[in-house]
Design goal:
The chain has 402 residues and is an alpha/beta fold. It folds into 3 domains: 6-163, HUPs (Rossmann fold, 3-Layer(aba) Sandwich); 179-296 and 338-358, Argininosuccinate synthetase, chain A, domain 2, CATH 3.90.1260; 367-399. It is 39% helix and 19% strand. The chain has 12 helices and 14 strands. It has a 5-stranded parallel sheet, with helices on both faces. The protein has a 5-stranded antiparallel sheet with strand order 10-9-8-13-14. It has a 4-stranded antiparallel sheet with strand order 6-7-12-11, with no helix packed on it. Strand 1, helix 1 (15-28) and strand 2 form a beta-alpha-beta unit. Helix 3 (66-79) packs across helix 7, helix 4 packs across helix 5 and helix 7 packs across helix 8 (279-295). The termini are far apart.
Length: 402
């Protein structure tokens, strides 16, 4: 362990990473640099600086990455209409490559030869952090304490903290029984009573959304403006990507939009039950598909849908920085050049309903699609030959008794 001189720790200031900080100092006898990222979790981050300072840390990074997160990670993912296993909008998964990127940048800036994280040996995040780190700096050493130490329970962590004088802020009042993770795209809940897939989560678990039953009795209409597949304005007001996330999370959450309760397949092989709130993402997925329905060629749209599950798995499993994800992203982004226009959605008691879409790049031709007189724009007799040619192989097989 003596070969590690300096390590960059992904540090939240909570129990786990506070213990890890001290453990790294004691076990590896190395200098620790702390990195705390603001990716829209809505928490005060300055206490992390105070705790790191108290632990003797000289190089402390607290970075506001909210705009970069939305612009360079969330928005590109939604251009692909990405959804994992038919339901999950990848809120945790998409944040990890950005954190890995910044860990490596800080390691390069500070001359560190290692990075460290607080992900456990059972989850996906260890894979995501480390695949990203190795892709960006192949020679980096990764220290994952949960795979090395024997502090494998909350009580052992608390005992360690007490022995070493590590302050642990205990929340007053009723504490959450769930393991939670939040960023601009979502908030997740796992553990405790949710480990029984039959148990319904308590209503007071949810933080970002009202229950659909208690949503407003009057629908809320939202108009989204698109440019090259990205939302650039809401109700005619220009927004940055992060501002889009903030605005849509607020308005959709107030209408009970975005709750999800699923059992997913982790990359490490186990099934896991989790609950998620993704208000903005739920609206974005529905609206983006609506604007694409007007502006994308049929075969382009269908090809995107065929490739999307692979793209989603790459993100879920931690391969954001892989060459295959970059290749897919190039194709996806190229498909978005004509994805411009407006979509109007109605939010009502947990539902997102598309009620209008328009685009100067629309491929919808009313003269052809109409049920009224099309004035010769489409010759219906042409369909006969089209049908017979497509039926030819089946007619031949039927005649052969096959």
């Amino acid at each position: 362990m003596s070969e590690v001189k300096k390590v960059v720790l992904a540090y939240s200031g909570g129990l786990d990473t506070s213990v890890i900080l001290k453990w790294l100092q004691d076990v590896y006898q190395c200098e620790v640099v702390t990195f705390t990222a603001d990716i829209g979790q809505g928490e005060e981050l300055e206490p992390a600086r105070a705790k790191a300072t108290a632990a003797g840390i000289k190089q402390i990074y607290i970075d506001d990455l909210r705009e970069e997160f939305a612009r360079d990670f969330i928005f590109p993912m939604f251009r692909a209409n990405t959804i994992y296993e038919g339901e999950y909008l990848l809120g945790t998964s998409i944040a990890r490559p950005l954190i890995a990127k910044r860990l490596i940048e800080i390691a390069n800036e500070t001359g560190a030869d290692a990075i460290s994280h607080g992900a456990t040996g059972k989850g996906n995040d260890q894979v995501r952090f480390e695949l990203g780190a190795y892709a960006l700096r192949p020679d980096i050493k990764v220290i994952a304490p949960w795979r090395e130490w024997d502090l494998n329970s909350r009580q052992k962590l608390l005992d360690y903290a007490e022995r070493h004088g590590i302050s642990v802020e205990m929340k007053k009042g009723k504490s959450s029984p769930y393991s939670m993770d939040a960023n601009s795209l979502h908030i997740s809940y796992e553990g405790r009573i949710l480990e029984n897939p039959w148990t319904e989560p308590e209503e007071d678990m949810w933080r970002w959304t009202v229950s659909p039953e208690n949503g407003p009795d009057q629908a809320t209409y939202v108009e989204l403006s698109y440019q090259n597949g990205d939302i650039v304005a809401i109700d005619g007001v220009t927004h940055t990507p992060h501002q889009v996330m903030e605005k849509l999370n607020k308005v959709a959450g107030a209408n009970g939009v975005g709750r999800l309760d699923i059992v997913e397949n982790r990359y490490v092989g186990m099934k896991s039950r989790g609950c998620y709130e993704t208000p903005a993402g739920t609206v974005m997925l529905k609206a983006h598909r609506a604007i694409e329905s007007l502006t994308l060629d049929r075969e382009v749209a269908h090809l995107k849908d065929e490739l999307m599950p692979r793209y989603a798995s790459l993100i879920y499993n931690g391969y954001w920085w892989s060459p295959e994800r970059a290749m897919l992203q190039t194709m996806i982004d190229a498909s978005q050049i004509h994805v411009n226009g407006k979509v109007r959605v109605k939010l009502y008691k947990g539902n997102v309903i598309v009620v209008g879409r328009q685009s100067d790049n629309s491929l919808f031709d009313e003269n052809i699609a109409t049920f009224e007189d099309d004035a010769g724009a489409y010759n219906q007799k042409d369909a006969e030959g089209f049908i017979k040619l497509n039926a030819l192989r089946m007619r031949i097989a039927a005649k052969k008794g096959r």
